[in-house]
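Troubleshooting: if your tokenizer reports a length mismatch, compare your output against this known-good record of 297 residues.
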Amino acid sequence: MNRTALPSGISEFLLVAELSSFTLAAEQMGLSRARMSQIIRQLEQNVGVQLFHRSTRVVSLTSAGESFYQQCRQGIDQLHYAIENTQEMHTNLTGLIRINSVGGLFGEQILAPKLATFMRKHPKIRIELDFSSVREDVIEAKFDVVVRMGKLEDSSLVGRPLTHYQNYLVASSDYLRHAPKLDHPKDLYNHTLINGSVKKWSFYPQDNDKKVLDIPIQASFQCNNGHVSRQFALKGVGITRQPSYYVEQDLQEGRLIQVLPQWKLAESTAHLVYPKARHPNARVKALIDYLLEAFST
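Known-good structure output:
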């Protein structure tokens, strides 16, 4: 089968697309702006379509350019991974792994120690661990893996379940002593609620896992940090929904009380996420395999 020779200018095209600037891309590659424009014009002639909208201020991809960019980016990434995999098959694991994860107690005290153990096993590995709470675009942000809580909705990503945590509805005895009645999840509408980013709390009767009752949450205090929400509950501010690793000891020692124990809350699942189209290189695959095993024990 005859294959069309790859046109030159792919690397330049990708950089211009990612920086949205001929000038910045040219500076980064040590070229003049005129030379960069010439390379892109030649590439457009070779592929037979206009790839960029050009104006004096803005450079943006055309619809054809966007499609071309996505496929080129995927192909170049896979080529880089193939080269790295081949090299790492004959050497110790080395290089950088970029990770984005939920933070708080999970990231700091559960995930981080496991990453430290992995690095001791592979001392030439470098890790960048990011705890930003914004849901990063895994592909655009160029993270190798992301640890997320909750449902995986993006079909372009692979989600491997790491672990599950039971959630509890809790409050202090001081709050409950003076609070309105609370016999049913719908009674929560009359209570002071402390919440993170979850828009609704899903309840199941203890005797029926399939019958779900969703309660939309209007929180009096909202914070994505579970430790802070726990502190507010301990101070008697209101009711909060927290995973077991935040409140299990408080429940055992009586500092917090489980609310509506006749109802179960949906579990939280931590997923290890990475792009479906991107084949993990040897070091990333080693980390994925290690974390899946470490969380299973």
